[in-house]
Amino acid sequence: MAAVATAIAIPAMAQAQTRSFNIPAQSASSAVLAFARQAGIRVIVAGRDTDGRTTNAVQGDLETREALDRLLARTGLIVRSFDKGIAILGVSPDQTAATEAPAEDIQVTGTRIIRNGYDAPTPTTVLGEEEIRRKAPENIADVVTLLPGVAAGNSPAQNTGTTSSGYTGVNSLNLRNLGSSRTLVLLDGRRLPAATVNGSIVDINVIPNAFIKRVDVVTGGASAAWGSDADAGVVNFVLDKDFTGVRGKIQGGATTEGDRKNYTLSLGAGARFAGDRGHLLVSAEHSYIEGIDGLPRDWYTGYRTFANPNWTATNGQPRYLSLEHVGYASITPGGVVTSGPLRGVYFGQNGTPGQLNYGTLLTSDTFVGGDWQYTDWSKNTQSFLNANSRQSAFARVSFDVSDRVQLFGQFLFTRSHVTSAAPPTIAGNTVRRDNAFLPESIGLRMDQLGLTTLSIGSSNADLGKRTYSSDHSLYQYLLGANGSVGLFGTDFTWEVSGYRSISKIGQDVLVPISANFTKALDAVRGPNGTIVCRSTLTDPTNGCAPYNPFGVGVNSSTSIQYFMSTDWVRQTIHQDGFAGTLRGEPFSTWAGPVSIATGVEYRRDSAEGTANPIGLADGFGNANYKPIHGSVNVKEGFAEVVVPLLKDMFFKSLDFNGAVRATDYSSSGFVTTWKTGLTFAPIDDVKIRFTRSRDIRAGNLSELFAAGSTGSAVASDPFLGGQTYTVQQVTTGNPTIRPERADTITFGAVVTPRAIRGLSLSADYWDVKIRDAITTASSSSTVDQCFKGDQDLCDNIVRGGDGKIKYIYVRPVNLDLFWARGIDFEASYRVRMSDIAASLGSGSLSIRALGTLNLKNGSESGITGIFNSSLREGGAPRYRYLIDLAYHTGSFDVSLTGRGISAGVRDATFIECTANCPGGNNTININRVDGAFYIDGSVSHAIAKGVEGFFVMTNIANRSPIPSADGPGFSSAQFGYNRTYSDTGRAFRAGIRFEL
């Protein structure tokens, strides 16, 4: 056997100098083991042949000379290893002994085939352990969402005004702004179950933060490799499954205002047993984030959008106005008369009447100035940020039953509990003249005016804050085996696994029982002069307690308890699955080995649940939860291949990558996805990559099986000349929807100039077209688009014998096209300070910049408000960028991060103008949303061996959120800012972490 040059590198923390020496291959085992044992560190190796090709990604602990000899006999060389800083490198005799190991071969998420990350045909952004550690996030999702290609998803703090979506408390990711349900989330390459029934959305809270090694973000279609839901891409969380030792973290933080206090406690451990044949990982984590009720921020100015009351199609004024100090004309805490000659009479403390100052520009719903703050329930009664408590646990055990077979098992658990103050019970009520609570002065005025009823609008302050809570828990059990087998004269690796995942979702909200509220509101004088419910006169035992709608502080708890109750739902989602894969290099071409990966997968998703019987009968004023019942199963088979086409012939290299997946859904039938790609290196410094793929997303459990709920809606019927009337709106699933199809193209280049060591540049163009996109149109959009000729939506309208609409079904449909297109940029540079000047010492400096330019992000279905280039509801900005600067020396780290987002428009379908506006309904005085730039910083310092303290500050300049006016047809956010941007202001985190 030929001699080799073997280099062993041990970092400074091991207190040994780097040693390089030449030894014969047959003697390498004893020399390597002796040196490693002297350093007290275990050796892990992987084999390669003399051409540097992977022969078999055999990895294992080699504590004996015999074990290492066996590996050498099969592979010829020791190549490299990473464990606690040790690097072992074998090179051919004509190469110079190396002093540092090359990049490790890993399975990158863009492909099922084991290869180096730079060779990935699909653009992949990698977040490494060092970057994650520096930012010390409350949750790993907080780091991933900083990436420019990841739009604002859901976070536990959001959905403060939502009590029915089931998203509250969920941390989700949203690639390309195409929606969280089109982003496939994996843990070590395995699919995670949905955390909500209202969409196939994975809760990032389930990821065991203690063992995250890196995060791969594949921003191109990957359904052929990984399956459904990868229209926008894949996020794969990769764990350090070989960790040994103990690591932990204690951290806490708050905002500069002293609120949103939070803390995290984390502990993880890894150990080997049974003579190093077995390995065990365990971790546990607890975190808490304090909620914020109301809005204790001075940037809030009541910025809202409303219909201009002075607009006509010909006077040149904008149809909509966005202004500050906008109040609600039809709501006050204790009630206000909303129409007729007494409009504006409100009822204050103890029922005292007053006249509301409507300021200027009064509409049916809003006004500017005057008493706007008095009517503004949103600032004072609901949560600005939810409170969230989360606990998680993780365990993994593996055991080598032989040199070629390993068994493993894994358990995953997480639980989150979210509480918030929901929006108040807003009601528009009609009260009679004989209502016993009506103030006498107002009754006399009604008599003078000949009025028999009053229309009262109220946020019912006497009901107090309406509590809402959401509980999510997940249990996942996984068993599997992996190993190697000889096929075609070489070794293949294989893996089989089966799992069961159980997601439990519970929601509770305090809401009024409609029938009881109506009875309680209708109060009269009884025969003995006492105030009773009118219904009690004919049914004395009905238990009704009268409610006073006139004023604040006028109701007892007895009255409120009569009609307020808790609506609840308990939902369980099961996901059972099996997967098997086989990888290897069966033969070689003139350019190198051909790599293949193939496998089969099966999974079944099912949902069942129970709910409050009153809600099932639509008996509450809102919520009325309905559990989903249904199941879907899918059977899949896939194959992927990498074929080297050229190697050092005219050009450096040219490889072909292709994949195909056959998928059979029980809900929608058979579909095929595929991917083709090329990686071309004309020279060592440049790699060019191209992919073309067909990806899919099938309907999720909610879209297919959502139970029907009925409510009322106002329809403007263009078929009847715009006649407006009330119709019944039926919200339900649609078991006939087809899978949506995404056609994705990526084209880009990676440049790593040898002349500038440590520099890497990349740029990738991407284009995603989603046809037959699954979405749910509102009742008004359904009618409008049916009038324009969309037959799919016409099928959702049922008319009565008089020609008027009787029912509008609001259910998922397949629309025409969603389209996203843009360019991703990345640049990174790492340099040792001593390379700049010897006097600068041994530290290192790294710079990483990422940016995404969105060229298009919109819908061509004709339905406005769905994925247009709009920032009003977290739409895609023109560009986002992130620049990370970090300095590291032996015991000290410091970093600065700049992150920015471009200015944009709130709605791309609107025209901004203040005068001489064109006619039509799409003009507005302010359509621009300003851009923003934030600076974050972190510092850490080693305070003992294996222990360091750290401090992180985000939004150092304490920038306020960017205003984004809510209002009719605009954002549902009640606080007048865009959640794409920072909202809490400057925040701090500090703590201690250790690894022993």
Helix and strand arrangement:
Blueprint: E1 3-9, E2 19-24, H1 25-39, E3 44-48, E4 54-61, H2 65-75, E5 77-80, E6 87-91, E7 124-128, H3 129-135, H4 140-144, E8 150-151, E9 174-175, E10 183-187, E11 190-191, E12 212-218, H5 223-226, E13 233-239, E14 245-255, E15 262-273, E16 278-289, E17 292-293, E18 304-307, E19 320-323, E20 326-328, E21 336-337, E22 345-347, E23 353-355, E24 366-368, H6 372-375, H7 377-381, E25 383-385, E26 387-400, E27 405-422, E28 427-432, H8 440-449, E29 453-458, E30 466-487, E31 490-512, H9 514-521, E32 523-525, E33 531-533, H10 534-538, H11 557-563, E34 564-589, E35 592-611, H12 613-616, E36 630-649, E37 651-665, E38 669-683, E39 686-697, H13 701-705, E40 709-717, E41 723-731, E42 740-751, E43 759-771, E44 774-776, H14 779-787, H15 791-794, E45 797-799, E46 805-810, E47 812-814, E48 817-832, H16 833-836, E49 844-859, E50 879-889, E51 892-901, E52 904-905, E53 911-912, E54 923-924, E55 928-929, E56 932-944, E57 947-954, E58 987-995
Parallel strand pairs: 10-13, 41-46, 53-54
Antiparallel strand pairs: 1-2, 1-6, 3-4, 3-5, 7-12, 8-9, 10-11, 12-13, 14-15, 14-58, 15-16, 16-26, 17-25, 18-19, 20-24, 21-29, 22-23, 26-27, 27-30, 28-29, 30-31, 31-34, 32-33, 34-35, 35-36, 36-37, 37-38, 38-39, 39-42, 40-41, 42-43, 43-48, 44-47, 45-46, 48-49, 49-50, 50-51, 51-56, 52-55, 56-57, ...
Output the CATH homologous superfamily of the largest domain: TonB-dependent receptor, beta-barrel domain
Amount of helix: 10-25%
Could you tell me the mean pLDDT? 79
Report the CATH architecture of the largest domain: Beta Barrel
Q: Count helical runs.
A: 16
Give the structural class: mainly beta
The CATH topology of the largest domain: Maltoporin, Chain A
Secondary structure: number of strands: 58
The parts where pLDDT drops under 50 for at least 5 residues are 1-108, 114-118, 863-874, 967-978
What is the CA-CA span between the terminal residues? Answer: 40 Å
Kindly provide the name of the CATH class of the largest domain.
Mainly Beta
Radius of gyration: 32 Å
Percent range for β-strand residues: over 45%
Query: Describe the biggest sheet?
Result: 22 strands, antiparallel, barrel
Total number of domains: 3
Q: Sum up the overall morphology in one term.
A: globular
